[in-house]
Amino acid sequence: MRKIAKEKLGALLAAVGRDKPLYIPALDASGQARFTRWHEGLEMARALNTVRSAKDFFFPQTENLVDFKVKGKQIEIIDPRSEQEDFVLFGVRACDARSFEILDKVFLADPVDTYYQSRREHGTVVTLACTQPEETCFCSAFGIDAAAPEGDAQVWMDEEYLYLSARTQKGDKFLESVRALAEDGGEDAVQRQQEETRRVMAKTPLAGLNLEGFDGEHLNPLFDSEKWAELSQACLGCGTCTFVCPTCQCYDIRDFDTGDGVRRFRCWDSCMYSDFTKMAHGNPRLTQVERFRQRFMHKLVYFPANNDGQYGCVGCGRCLSKCPISMNIVKVAKELSKEVR
Ligand code: SF4
Ligand code: SF4
User: Fold this and answer.
1) Best mutation site among 299, 300, 327 for ligand 2, i.e. most ligand atoms within 8 A of its Cβ?
2) Which of 69, 93, 135, 184 is deepest in the core (most CB within 10 A)?
């Protein structure tokens, strides 16, 4: 383990950010934290959750896939991708770091999504351990340790030092890039911080969320529950919960007329929208109850049933704080669990 005096945080960011694009959580004009490209003087925000998750860097909201240029009867097919450059994401929290494992299961499964794959290969994820979880945090319900976040390299911060440890070759390279600022040591301080964080985490209001019964074994009683109608009654179908979610991965592909051809692009979509999965024969989910049920069944039942028990939620709490009607996955899990107990 290496440690760097906290007053050298600016020098650390500069050492990394002068070399390649570096993104850190920083406050925007409205006071909200967003991953922002580092520049001299940019300060790192201490907020736990950025408004939008770190998934944007691997699965952006919009992305051009292919261009078709039409000349008479000739159609030229152009791959718009330029060589992806290496970049570093610094300050990713444990929940967002785990979301990459979930997205990998979707985008890196056969057939591999090469757009996503390229970004994953070029991105180095440096995580930052939490010390003061918010009331809306419940990552521990999914076996995530906020005090030991995953990623290529891990960072813990206290009043005096940043402590750094590498987990992958990319993490080794990151540590190498800040070698001149670092010294050995810090194991004891990290251990003390981890114990304290775990103690605090265990006392958060949602720490005891029980997910027993949310597996492939109880699919029918959960699907058929009459509670869906009541739970979804006030849902506006706004899609906010899907757009702030680090694990939501649905997208739409559309064509745009460029005048001399077609640009094919993809953009995030939401299962909460009425035209989602609309096909030639119409839409298989005609009501908001069905759409609402799909979102939560996917995260709590279908995904774990098909992925060795791994849930499609990391307990980041964004949907808890952003839904305009205060509906969220915790309320749904609590209500639905009564059906299978
Ligand atoms: S954020 Fe809330 S109101 Fe909007 S779609 Fe999601 S559950 Fe419905
Ligand atoms: S469902 Fe909600 S709590 Fe779970 S990962 Fe998505 S935004 Fe976070």
Assistant:
1) 299
2) 93
| pTM for the predicted model, two decimal places | 0.94
**274 CA distance to ligand 1 centroid (A)?**
13
For 140-179, what is each residue's pLDDT tens digit?
999 999 999 999 999 999 999 999 999 999 999 999 999 9
Ligand 1 lined by 272 (C-beta under 6 Å): yes
Interval 265-304: pLDDT, tens: 999 999 999 989 888 888 889 899 999 999 999 999 999 9
* Residue closest to 155 by CA, chosen among 85, 87, 203, 89: 89
pLDDT at 283: 85
Burial of 75 (0-12, 13-18, 19+ CB in 10 A): exposed
What separation in Å is there between the alpha carbon of 242 and the centre of ligand 1?
Answer: 8
**In whole angstroms, what is the distance from residue 269 CA to residue 294 CA?**
14
- Within 10 angstroms of residue 42's Cβ, the number of other Cβ atoms is 16
